[in-house]
Structure formats: structure tokens, C-alpha cells
Amino acid sequence: MAKTKYIFVLGGVMSGIGKGVATSSIGKIIQSHGYKVTVMKIDPYVNVDAGTMNPTEHGEVFVLESGLETDQDMGNYERFLNITLPPDNYMTTGSVYQTVINRERNLEYKGKCVQIIPHITNEVINKIKKAGQKNKADVVIVEIGGTTGDYENQLFTEAARQMKLRDPDNVLFVMLSYIPYPQKIGEMKTKPTQQAVRLLNAAGVQPEIIIARSERKIDDKRKEKIALFCNVEPEAVISAPDVESIYDVPLNFEKDGFAKVILKKLGLKNGEKTDFRQWDKFVQKVHQAKDKIKLAVVGKYFNTGDCVLSDSYISVIEAIKHASYNNDLIPQIDWIDAELFEKEKKKVKMLADYDGIIVPGGFGSRGIEGIISSITFARENKIPYLGLCYGMQLMVIEFARNVLGLKNAHTAEIKPRARDKVIDLMEKQKAHLRQGIYGATMRLGAYPCRLKSKTIAAKAYGKNKISERHRHRYEVNNQYIKQLEKAGLIFSGTSPDGQLMEIAELPTKMHPFMLGSQFHPEFTSSPLKPNPLFNELIKTIKRIKKSK
Ligand code: GLN
């Protein structure tokens, strides 16, 4: 069997320039040449996983099928490559240290002094190799978080250096850099890139490919300059200008001859047929769609800019895009701060301007009554509504209060002593919260769900057994199910034993599309396979718009 190849993607100059998308796109072009590719993310922070972090701090928490709570980039890899990643493909400084420290406590180092080098670095290398084996990959792409020169990621760069030293032909370094274009100077500047390479050199690493992110395409002169000063071949400097859609990036890479360069450097044959047809078709839809739809995503967005929001809800945004573009529609997403409707009740009427309303997942009490008012508005005005996790729980509360007439209906998350806790803590969660154990203790990851036939959910999925990913502590309280059903609510999805309510919806004769899921459908959506619930929502919106 051929040896596994490893590509490390490192950041130079600055963060936030799309290293995750670039890494996913490298994966995509290699995959499209017929190779089995897997992608890993290394996060240099000390948190053991991303689960305990506030999404406004570090972006969305992406939940893997296994239930591991990871970085949003893992979502990009899955969406671009249409693959499901195992937990082996993610590590943080915290998780690596935790493994080594546990081993040390168990005397597994047999009395040795345990050190960062070699014990921690060896653990990193072992994890990378194990992920390669587990995924039976021809090529493993490893994205190291942060920027060259960060104190935090030196350990991982060192592990990568050692891998290259031991196996030079099968390890490749790619640096993603940024080429600023100061308007006043009117010229693209390559100096920061040169310095970033020097920093990497000081760590014993020489990038062989440089991806030059910039506002516009970099010219040959700049390519030659980078090549000369950064010790790479001119053809190994890849231009990566700003794009309209992130899904353009692999196509642009392909156009710039990136696949040829990278395969040659890895010693892999270029002969296999490139299959980009389906991807190309999706990207064309993105560029050709003409009709717009307006979607309101209602949540608690106090003090957060658009930029922070698009990071915190990246999977939701992408799932909306996949479904919309596949239905030839351009989605316009507006973030609506629910607290607005608490301060001024009448303001909720602004939602009449929208073709659809989405309430994403969330925690805590801020903005909740405002969100519930917008759910009432969606129900009464027959505006298509999709509730994701918290959005489903709040939809059930709204229904209990305003249709069933239980005015005090609430969730135990906010009002533990409410008279009608229609949403209550799951039994298994009680001990965790009592003991204050928060890390990785929610109901996490993929669980099977059974769908009731002749419902919106069953129609959307086109089958009655599905599996979707979760991240919650609370659930619909079974004591209220009979009453809720009698008042008209349909629990169209449940756990196979019928005990946990997974999907709630209104009958179509009451509302064209009012549905909430306890799971997060956004985690399994990709351009080539939009998630069925998002797809059904957008299809309903399209139908309503046409009939108007
Ligand atoms: N806060 C709710 C719970 O824990 C919903 C979680 C979510 O939306 N991800 O059950």
C-alpha cells in the first residue's frame, strides 16, 4: 500500500482570512482527483474541546456525529468534502495534555521525566497518524490553528517539523498568507509574507506552497517576488483573491493549477479524472439565482456585530444557502435582536416583511420573551417557521401558552419552579448539573429518530428513519404530550422508543410550515446535499411566493 501523505496548513501574517475554507478547498481538489482525503483541525487553546466556549468568543461549536464538540472549521471540511469526520480528526492543546497527564498518572511512562518534547509532541504525531489510519486516507490534511509566531501553536509546528524530518517525501507544508493592498500606495505588498516565512524558518519549517490571500488576484510580478524571497517556486505561489461565495474557492484553485502543483509535490499521479461537475453546477446556481427571499433569524444578539454572528451561526447560514441556491433562490438573512420585541411589543410586526423566520439554538434567558412573541407572530400570520433546538422548545412553549391556554408554560432552564414546565431537564442531566460537570455532558451527537408518516417531516426526508445531531440538556416534558397533541400539535419525530420528542410541527391545514426540531439539522447540510428540513422550508417559501 502507498504511504499516507500529510499536508500541514499553517497561517502566516494574520488570522481570519479563511484558512478553514482554504484547507477544505485543498481537500476538495485532491479528492476530486480520485484520492481519499481526510482533514484534521488542531486548535491551540487549552480547552479540552470547544463545548464550553461561548460562540461569540470562538465561533460556532460544531458537533460531530460522535458528539465531540469542535471548531466550526470541522463543519467546513464536512460540507466541502461531503464526508463525516470521526473524533480522531480534532485535537486541542488541552486534549493532548489531558491524554499525556492521564498516562503519566497511570505510571505508563515508567518513572521517566515527562516532557513537552518528546512526550507531548509524540502524542500529537501519534494522533495525526491514527486519524490517517482510521480514515484509511491517502492524504491527511492538518490545519494548525492560529498564526505563525503565536506562542500557543509552536508545539504543533514542532510536531509537524519532526514528521517532515523523519519522512520528507510524504510531508508537505502549505502556508496561507495575506498580501495587503494599501490604496494610498496602490501596490500589493509582499513584505509581511516574507517575514512570516522567516518566522516559520526559525521554527525549522520551510513552506513549499504559499497561498496568497488578497483583495484581488496577485500578478506574476508579485508571485515571482514571493517565490524569490520565500524560497518557493513561482508556480507554487497560489493566488486566492476575495470571492463572492466560499464555494468558488476550489474552482479558483483548480484554475490556478493548484492541483497539479500539489499532486506533483506529494509524488501523486495527476492522471485521475477530475470530477467537479456537481460542484460546478451548484456554484453556477449560486451565481445565476435571481429571485430573492428574505429570512429573519431571531435570537439574542445584544452587542454583537454581523461578523461575530456569521461566525456563531455558520452552519445555519450555510444550510440556508445550500437549500436556497439549490432551489434557485438568493437568501437574504437579517439578524433580528429579540430584545427589540421585549422593549417595544409592536415592533414584532416588522416580521411581516419576511418570507420565513428561523429561531436558532441557544441557551439562557436573554431575549426569550421576544423570541416567543415572534413565534406567535409567525404562527398567527402563517409565515413559514423553522425552530432549531431552542427554537423548537420555545415553539412548544408558545403553543402551550397561546393555543393550549397554559399561560404559565415555560422551560425549566429559565424558570425551574414554573407551574407548567412543558420543557424540562432530561433525567440524565440532573446529576451533571448538581455536581457542576458541564464539559461534554449534554446529550450530544447523532441519535436515530423515527418519523410519523404523512407529516411535513416525513415528506421532507422521504423516509421514516433518520439520524441527526444533538446538543441539548432539556426536552419536551412527556406529561404534557397528550394535551399538546389534543390541541393540535404533532410530534412528527421521536426517539425510536417514542420517549423523546424530536420534531414538533403544526398540521398543514393550520399553517403552511411551522416546524421545530430538537436536533440541529444544520450540521448535516452540504451544497450537494442540502438538509431536508431546510430544503422543505425553502420549497414552501418558494411555493407561497409563486402563488402570491
Ligand atoms: N438550551 C436548550 C437546551 O439545553 C437548547 C440548546 C440548543 O439550542 N442547542 O436544551
Which characteristics define this entry?
single chain; 548 residues; alpha/beta; Rossmann fold; 2 domains; 9-stranded mixed beta sheet; 7-stranded parallel beta sheet; 20 helices; 21 strands; 21% strand; binds glutamine
Task: Describe this structure in a few short sentences.
This protein has 548 residues and is of the alpha/beta class.
Which small-molecule species are bound to the chains here? glutamine
Q: Please give the largest β-sheet.
A: 9 strands, mixed
Largest sheet strand order: 11-10-12-13-21-20-19-16-17
Global structural class: alpha/beta
The CATH architecture of the largest domain can be given as 3-Layer(aba) Sandwich
Kindly estimate the percentage of residues that lie in beta strands according to DSSP.
15-25%
Task: Report mean pLDDT, rounded to a whole number.
Answer: 94
Q: Give the full name of the CATH homologous superfamily of the largest domain.
A: P-loop containing nucleotide triphosphate hydrolases
Model regions low in confidence, pLDDT < 50 over at least 5 residues: none
Provide the domain count: 2
What is the name of the CATH class of the largest domain? Alpha Beta
Radius of gyration: 25 Å
Q: Find the count of extended strands (DSSP E, 2+ residues).
A: 21
CATH topology of the largest domain: Rossmann fold
CA distance, first residue to last residue: 61 Å
Residue share in helices? 25-40%
| Shape type | globular
What is the helix tally? 20
